[in-house]
Amino acid sequence: MLSSLFREKIENITHLGARVGGLFASLMASGRLGIYLGTDDRRVLETIIFPYFIESSEFSHILFVGCRWYTMRYRKAFEGKDYWTLDIDPRQRRYGARKHIIDSMENLARHFKDNALDLVVCNGVFGWGLNNKADAENALQGCHQCLREGGVLLLGWNDVPQRRPFHPRECRTLALFDPWVFPPLSASEYLTDTRNRHTYDFYVKPGSADRRSA
Ligand SMILES: C[S@@+](CC[C@H](N)C(=O)[O-])C[C@H]1O[C@@H](n2cnc3c(N)ncnc32)[C@H](O)[C@@H]1O
């Protein structure tokens, strides 16, 4: 009798805990708690890099690769732009844009016409799934094909051995791009103040509409 009462209490507590945990997770996912990652790479991305592209009318057609709960707010930030997201993992769809693609980045060119994009943001994907050199080459080839001349590729990656299957510059396809000096940071490569040495590399697809500031 006593043990069944005890078991019932435990079950009630467990049930309540699961409900509170579920509520917290869904509030977090919906961004309603306003929780975000307070790391320096996120600060640079959200308060320096994004505002530049949001304010510039030359960047309308935007693809953001890789979605997580903390990137869900970006769909609001890019409201008014033609904002797309892409992730290989179907479960990440809920964190993506209204225009979301479930596929690997290496198949990017299947989803966009040539020269259709102004900006591709590939942040935290290299070394976080896009680890194989052939896949990375295909992904970069897709970026080159789908970006317009003067379009920008932002590659955010961790410059630490455990997240760097190889140096991104070893990808031959990157030679199709030029390094682009991002005006607000006055650099084409920017190392953030993070333990995982998160680094932003800016590239431009060269051509007549080139916006190189170097
Ligand atoms: C660490 S999260 C990065 C999320 C986000 N881009 C950011 O700014 O932090 C890595 C995401 O990339 C996705 N991903 C990994 N490999 C991919 C690939 N080949 N193509 C598309 N998405 C991929 C994973 O499913 C995961 O959601």
How far the N terminus sits from the C terminus, by CA atoms, comes to 79 Å
Largest sheet: 8 strands, mixed
Number of strands: 8
CATH homologous superfamily annotation of the largest domain: Vaccinia Virus protein VP39
Strand-pairing-aware structural class: alpha/beta
Return the CATH class of the largest domain.
Answer: Alpha Beta
- State Rg: 20 Å
H/I helix tally: 4
Low-confidence stretches: 20-34
* CATH-defined architecture of the largest domain: 3-Layer(aba) Sandwich
Kindly identify the CATH topology of the largest domain: Rossmann fold
- Overall geometry comes to globular
| Domain module count | 2
Helix-strand topology string: HHEHEEEHEEEE
Sheet-strand content, in percent, reads 15-25%
Bound compounds, each kind once, are: S-adenosylmethionine
What percent of residues adopt helix (DSSP H or I)? 25-40%
Describe it for me?
With 214 residues, this protein is an alpha/beta fold. The protein has 2 domains: 1-35; 38-204, Vaccinia Virus protein VP39 (Rossmann fold), CATH 3.40.50.150. The chain contains 4 helices and 8 strands. It has helices spanning 2-30, 40-55, 74-77, 133-146, and strands at residues 61-65, 82-87, 99-102, 117-123, 147-158, 178-179, 189-191, 198-204. Strands 1, 2, 3, 4, 5, 6, 7 and 8 form an 8-stranded mixed sheet that branches. Helix 4 (133-146) links the parallel strand 4 and strand 5 (147-158). It starts with a helix and ends in a 10-residue tail after the last strand. Residues 20-34 have low confidence and may be disordered. S-adenosylmethionine binds at residues 65-68, 71, 86-89, 92, 104-105, 123-125, 128-130.
